[in-house]
């Protein structure tokens, strides 16, 4: 735990992580809040609710790199002001918007979602030393897992007691409060030894968006594709067994195992390669469908959970190392977009696998997708020039000439 005490002792780190956790819990619950509002408040179908959720998710995915680019050019507070104010307008107006306008507004304001996750990652990269960074990103990944455990659950509980409009307003209020809190903290986004992005200028994309970075983004996509697929496969498996009411227990076990795995990984003396972590995650997930009732499924998802947060933290750490300071906002935005795309594609692809086979096929499809992404990441990393990799402390250990390619990735968010 010494590593974590050192990270939390960094000036400004503990308040940043606290405010970020609050905001991320609300952001992970925003889709659930809108879903419940459309179904319960507008009395429409789940398909209609899914349309609003998809519009919001698409906006967030497309807006990440754009907001990151503006952060690099204009600074943190400018972007937070430009996103917090529209969020106030959107969440206050949701209960009075007809469905058609809500659909378009969800996409537009998704583009302007407060970039809590990517700002937190940028700040971690700037505020920590190389020796502290892996533990810091492990805490960030654990934070993402906790937000997924707490956020949607709180929204569902509140929906049973309050009106759908009140739940929507509550989620929006917490998102706005989180953005305002980060603006007040104003964490540094460049380390002391790094040149100011505005003064130094932006390096051309060809200098940093090469094979190494594409490898990391591919693995970010594969990791979240697995996670969204596993969530769907759990429900499908238990529905077939007539035990769907136990799905929440299985998901909770999965999440707590991920939290434990992240904490263990951050305390290890040496990192593991990102591609290896993702490949192992895929391997342990593929046979999970062999468990046919909820107690055994709880046991089976522990292995997947233990490797989830380490994989996501490794991805985030890798992006921070491969991206020069002048483009770190755009790079973390691309990471968030890749993870959002993985979540968007994972469920339908795994759903097809379940429909054409059996629920166990969903776990196999999710695991194989992650293995494929790990192999692609490994191959692309080998194509990266040594010069570029050395300057960024690359991702894939195995090159004897490199100092330590490894996790040195959510979206989450992250997970998201």
TrEMBL record:
In this chain, the stretch annotated as Disordered covers: 386-416
* Pfam families in the cross-refs: MFS_1
Q: Name one GO molecular function term.
A: transmembrane transporter activity
InterPro entries reported for this sequence? MFS, MFS_trans_sf
Keywords tagged on the record: Membrane, Transmembrane, Transmembrane helix
Segments traversing the membrane: 46-68, 99-116, 166-187, 208-238, 244-265, 272-288, 360-380
Protein name listed in UniProt:
Predicted arabinose efflux permease, MFS family
| Provenance organism | Micromonospora echinaurantiaca
The organism's lineage?
Answer: Bacteria, Bacillati, Actinomycetota, Actinomycetes, Micromonosporales
């Amino acid at each position: 735990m010494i590593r974590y005490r050192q990270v939390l002792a960094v000036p400004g780190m503990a308040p940043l992580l606290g405010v970020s956790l609050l905001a991320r819990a609300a952001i992970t619950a925003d889709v659930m809040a809108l879903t419940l509002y459309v179904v319960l408040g507008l009395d429409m179908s789940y398909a209609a609710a899914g349309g609003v959720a998809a519009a919001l998710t698409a906006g967030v995915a497309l807006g990440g790199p754009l907001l990151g680019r503006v952060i690099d050019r204009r600074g943190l507070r400018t972007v937070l002001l430009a996103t917090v104010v529209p969020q106030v307008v959107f969440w206050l107006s949701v209960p009075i918007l007809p469905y058609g306008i809500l659909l378009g507004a969800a996409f537009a304001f998704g583009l302007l979602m407060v970039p809590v996750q990517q700002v937190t990652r940028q700040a971690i990269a700037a505020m920590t030393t190389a020796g502290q960074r892996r533990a810091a990103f492990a805490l960030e990944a654990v934070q993402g897992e906790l937000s997924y455990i707490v956020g949607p659950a709180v929204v569902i509980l509140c929906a049973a007691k309050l009106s759908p409009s009140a739940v929507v307003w509550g989620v929006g209020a917490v998102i706005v409060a989180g953005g305002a809190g980060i603006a007040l903290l104003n964490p540094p986004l460049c380390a002391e030894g790094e040149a100011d992005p505005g003064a130094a200028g932006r390096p051309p994309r060809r200098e940093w968006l090469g094979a190494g970075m594409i490898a990391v983004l591919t693995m970010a996509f594969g990791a979240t594709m697995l996670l969204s697929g596993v969530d769907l496969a759990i429900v499908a498996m238990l529905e077939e067994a007539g035990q769907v009411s136990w799905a929440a227990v299985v998901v909770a076990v999965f999440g707590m195992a991920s939290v434990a795995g992240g904490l263990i990984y951050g305390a290890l003396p040496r990192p593991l390669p990102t591609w290896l972590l993702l490949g192992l995650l895929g391997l342990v997930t593929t046979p999970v469908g062999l468990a046919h009732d909820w107690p055994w499924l709880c046991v089976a998802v522990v292995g997947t959970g233990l490797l989830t947060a380490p994989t996501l933290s490794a991805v985030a750490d890798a992006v921070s190392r491969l991206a020069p300071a002048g483009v770190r906002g755009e790079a973390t935005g691309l990471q968030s977009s890749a993870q959002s795309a993985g979540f968007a594609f994972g469920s339908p692809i795994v759903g097809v696998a379940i429909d054409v086979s059996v629920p166990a096929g969903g776990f196999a499809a999710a695991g194989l997708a992650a293995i494929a992404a790990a192999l692609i990441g490994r191959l692309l990393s080998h194509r990266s020039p040594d010069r570029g990799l050395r300057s960024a402390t690359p991702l894939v250990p195995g090159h004897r000439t490199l100092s330590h390619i490894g996790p040195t990735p959510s979206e989450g968010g992250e997970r998201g």
